[in-house]
Write a structure and sequence with these properties.
- Residues 1-30 form the signal peptide.
- Homodimer.
- This protein is mostly beta strands.
- It folds into two domains: 2-40; 49-194, AOC barrel-like (Beta Barrel).
- The protein contains one helix and nine strands.
- Strand 8 (167-177) and strand 9 (184-194) form a beta hairpin.
- Bound molecules: 2-acetamido-2-deoxy-beta-D-glucopyranose (4 copies).
- One 2-acetamido-2-deoxy-beta-D-glucopyranose binds next to loops.
Length: 195
């Protein structure tokens, strides 16, 4: 009886010591955070994830009276890859290669020359839609674009509206480049998982 008592009182002593120290270093198990709640994914429309394939043509218009792609930083050296160049874009996304075909959104963001050995761009773009149910939704494309490769691939990293929690990738192929004006049309095929 006396032995049992001494064990339990020493246990108590060690739990007491543990509590003092643990409080200062790690959160006690089961501690509540008033600003965090578990949510049923269905309540925010996350029911069935689907895969959609979008195809559009991206128009990089650097010439003309109203260019949609504007150099905002000139390459600071004479690098043959234009290393350091930055272009800001608000490029139309159309459903056919012709600029006059239906425009469903804009690719807004920038690209910058990020490679000193070859032409390799870092691209950061929000694909902002204004067609039908996609109006107001966006997904974000980020990746490396070696523009002289036949097919390039970049990531879809997330989105807003219908593209919340989106992920996926885009494959792009140059459709045409005017070597005089440097205007380019690029075919984008986007495979996007979203709810
Ligand atoms: C670029 O924009 C001009 C008008 O500013 C237009 O005439 C031309 O067709 C466009 N080029 C391309 C490749 O979209
Ligand atoms: C680029 O090259 C030209 C001609 O060789 C030279 O005059 C100029 O200073 C160079 N510019 C830079 C930023 O290196
Ligand atoms: C897209 O949404 C905006 C804002 O709600 C609205 O003004 C615009 O007319 C819509 N465009 C289309 C094509 O539905
Ligand atoms: C390239 O653009 C120039 C200037 O707009 C135009 O005259 C020429 O026909 C275009 N070339 C091609 C191959 O489209």
């Amino acid at each position: 009886m006396a032995r049992a008592l001494s064990i339990s009182s020493s246990n108590l002593f060690f739990s007491f010591i543990f509590l003092i120290f643990s409080h200062a270093t790690i959160p006690i198990l089961g501690e509540e955070y008033s600003y965090v709640k578990r949510v049923d994914p269905k309540k925010i429309g996350m029911r069935k994830e689907k895969l959609s394939h979008f195809r559009f043509y991206w128009h990089d218009n650097v010439s003309g009276r109203n260019p949609t792609s504007i150099q905002v930083v000139a390459p600071p050296t004479n690098s043959t890859t234009a290393f350091g160049l930055v272009n800001m874009i608000d490029n139309p996304l159309t459903i056919e290669p012709k600029l006059s075909s239906k425009m469903v959104g804009k690719a807004q963001g920038l690209y910058t020359s990020a490679s000193q050995e070859e032409i390799g761009l870092l691209m950061i773009m929000n694909f902002a839609f204004f067609d039908g149910k996609y109006n107001g939704s966006t997904f974000t494309v980020l990746g490396r674009n070696t523009v002289f490769s036949k097919v390039r691939e970049m990531s879809v990293i997330s989105g807003s509206g219908l593209f919340r929690f989106a992920r996926g990738y885009v494959e792009l192929k140059t459709y045409s480049v005017n070597l005089t004006t440097r205007d380019a049309i690029v075919e984008y095929n986007a495979y996007v998982l979203h709810y």
